[in-house]
Each structure stands twice: as C-alpha cells, then as structure tokens.
Amino acid sequence: MPKHADLKTGPGHVAIIMDGNGRWAQQRNRPRLFGHHAGARRVREIVAACPDLGVKYLTIFAFSTENWKRTQTEVAGLMSLFRKYIEREAKALLKNGVRVRFIGDRIRLDVKLVRLMDELELLTADNDLVHLTIAINYGGRDEVTRAAKRLAYEVEMGRLTHNDVDAETLSRFLDTRVLPDPDLVIRTSGEARISNFLLWQSAYSEYEFVDTLWPDFTAVEFARVLSSYGRRERRFGAVLA
Ligand code: IPE
Ligand code: IPE
Ligand code: MG
Fold first, then answer.
1. CATH topology assigned to domain 11-140+183-228
2. What is the pLDDT of residues 12-58, one digit of tens each?
3. Would you please indicate which residues are annotated as catalytic (active-site) residues?
4. Taking each helix axis from N to C terminus, what angle separates 111-123 and 72-95, rounded to the nearest 10 degrees?
C-alpha cells in the first residue's frame, strides 16, 4: 500500500515541478537567470500558503540530474542562487515553522552549498508545521539506482538477504525515506511530462499540469489547483463501493 500523509482536508503532500523560468525571462528579453531569480521569489509565497491550505509536505524540483547539460553560465548561476536562497531565507523558514530537507545526490554539488544545506536541515530540524523538501541534483532513476546500490551493499555485508528485498525495504534506502508519497504532483509551464521527478513515489499520485510559467504561479492559483484535486476520486487500484 502506498503511504500517504494522513490529513482529512486537501492533499497532505504536494510536489511541484517548477518549470518555465527560462521562457518567462525570454518573454521579457532578459537572461534565463533573471527568470530563475523570479522563480525563487515565488517559492516563498507558495511555502507561506501551505499551512492554510492543508499542505503539510511540499516537495519542489529545483535542479535535475539532467540540468547539468545547460550552459556553464546557467548552471553556475543556479548554484549561486541556491546558496543565496538558503542564506537569505534561513531565518524566516526557522521562524515560520518550516522544516527543510534536501533530496538528490550531493556528491556533485559544491562543498560550500552542501554545507549550507546541512546547516539549514539541522537548524530547522525541530520544526513541524510545513515540511519543505528541495530536490537539487535529483533524478528519480538516479535515486532508485543509489538505493539499489546501498541495498546490494547491505546484502554483500550479510546484514540483509535477497529475500529481504521488497518495495518496503527499497523505500527505506530512497532519499525520501521519511516522507509520505506525494498526493498531488503539479507541473507548471504547460509541459505534460515527469522529467525524472519522484518516479517511484508518484506511482499513485494525481497530476495537474498548468500552463502558467513558474514565476507567475501565485498562491491564489495554487489554492485553485488544490481545490480541483479535492474533487477527484482516488482508487489505488481498488473498486470503490
Ligand atoms: C525550471 O525552469 C527551472 C529549472 C529547470 C532549473 P526552466 O529553466 O526549465 O525554464 P524553461 O522550461 O526553459 O522555460
Ligand atoms: C524539470 O524541468 C526540472 C526542474 C524543474 C528542476 P526541465 O525544464 O529540466 O525538464 P525538461 O527538460 O523540459 O523535460
Ligand atoms: Mg524547463
């Protein structure tokens, strides 16, 4: 059975593929990074809206394992934006009851960024109002592969046997091990694909694709998308009476 956040109203766990920053900037004849900065400002508004909307867990896709294919300028600009975001937002996140976690492979990230990520996780570890998870250098296939590798190592060490390998055990080796599965995945900018986000965890998630570019995605639109989720019937493979 998929595990889900146990909330009566609204989707307990919303995951967002924040797409469209580049096109937003392009429309204004500005460099792509201008769009990424505008996008980062939106994150604050969406996180702040979560408690009132019944969203306990918010997981956002900030940088994929495939995004390294972009120009060096854009990649470096994004990495510096992530550092600035953490430095600038840490205090407010702490004060507002937000617990921050990061998922993705940290091995390829700059040590300074990784240190800031570790510090923010530690700083906010006692918060429980909203659980914000930021995916940086994250790819669903990469995550499952890393989990399989660690599982194989446990078997090699004799701490597990091949008979212990089931969906539940594998989940415990994923980056998301402490998170419920997403109830709803939203993608902005009109693209209707998953782009390697939460492949395992979204097996039974609902999807909403909206045309709005991420820097234009307001808390009002967020609330509207969540209310349309409330009208759906989820069956998880069963026939409902
Ligand atoms: C999403 O916006 C942010 C990241 C992938 C880092 P894009 O940069 O993909 O914007 P578009 O899709 O080119 O408009
Ligand atoms: C997905 O967006 C990754 C993030 C939002 C961080 P992309 O813009 O990288 O995805 P594709 O290339 O359009 O599939
Ligand atoms: Mg994109």
1. Undecaprenyl pyrophosphate synthetase (3.40.1180)
2. 999 999 999 999 999 999 999 999 999 999 999 999 999 999 999 99
3. 19, 67
4. 20
